[in-house]
């Protein structure tokens, strides 16, 4: 509530408005993005349809390609193989990855760069950075994130997987659900209960778990509505033993570490959605300018070109919000409310854009032959994964002081 009140007062203050800032895109940003786009067009997009048909892509091969070219550790420490740039350069990469013709591939890369490794890079010891972060940046390891469980999705505090200490080892029992990269991953950044503190925000830790450890098994590969080229798995763990040194940060602070990690995930998702929406609108304009019905092109209908103008306006507003949020993130500010709003708006807008544009394609839009149909099924995940829309609304309401629990 205090954040919301400060925000409103600030927006009413002319001095604050005059000092409003946003991300400045430099030639260096553009160069990184352009180099990555060339690699995508040359080495990744020609194979995307094959991977969609096979419902999996060769993660080790693709990640090694990206790692060899320096794209998996853009904002990660130089001493572990990263480029040491600020987070704004990660956004340029996220925008480039959105040009991959398969959403599942770009999502899997996002897990590697912005979902499974931010906490490791920020809070991890030299030991875990050397053994897990460095090979992940190099593309030698594929990573996955273990948070959701059967019965515990967006309600992160309710996870049931546990780790107990025996000698110099963690002994882990439990399982994880909806694990992107799960069938190919070399290690998991796993959120697990590690003590008996009754406060669910103080009893969890993040632990690096090698996926070939005895007791770790892929229970099943999950068939999905979209993101076909990305493997998603249910993972079970029984009496899994890993060194105590595999802990990321402090014991009992895993929930906070993961919440911070979620901010990167939500920004990445929004950054990736924007180019997809730009492409959907532009391709729809091109198609509707050629397709004729009742003696004129589809685009000549006022409703169609007005609707596309409305959608593009919404996209530009979201882009401004993204760049402002990134600028604040780079400055070290707490962006929890902004990133949450960004995630909520991007998930809803990408659904609106894909649905509206697909409608204008008519029967052709219902085939697998065009980008818009793949976008329609792939991007539906955005309002579910990484925190459902309803959870985002709950977080925003707590910051505004309108949630009943915050008014007691």
Topology summary:
Layout (H helix, E strand, L loop, with lengths): L1 H10 L2 H5 L8 H18 L3 H7 L4 H10 L19 H10 L5 H13 L2 H6 L2 H13 L4 E4 L15 E5 L2 E12 L6 E7 L10 E7 L5 E6 L10 E12 L3 E2 L5 H37 L1 E2 L2 E2 L4 H29 L5 H26 L9 H8 L10 H12 L8
Parallel strand pairs: 1-4
Antiparallel strand pairs: 2-3, 3-7, 4-5, 5-8, 6-7, 9-10
Description:
- The chain has 408 residues and is an alpha+beta fold.
- The protein is built from 14 helices and 10 strands.
- 50% of the residues lie in helices and 14% in strands.
- Strands 1-4-5-8 form a 4-stranded mixed β-sheet. Strands 2-3-7-6 form a 4-stranded antiparallel β-sheet, covered by helices on one side.
- Strand 9 and strand 10 (296-297) form a beta hairpin.
- The radius of gyration is 22 Å and the shape is globular.
- 43% of the residues are buried.
Helical stretch tally: 14
Largest sheet: 4 strands, mixed
Strand content: 5-15%
Rg value: 22 Å
Sum this structure up briefly.
The protein has 408 residues and is an alpha+beta fold. The protein contains 14 helices and ten strands.
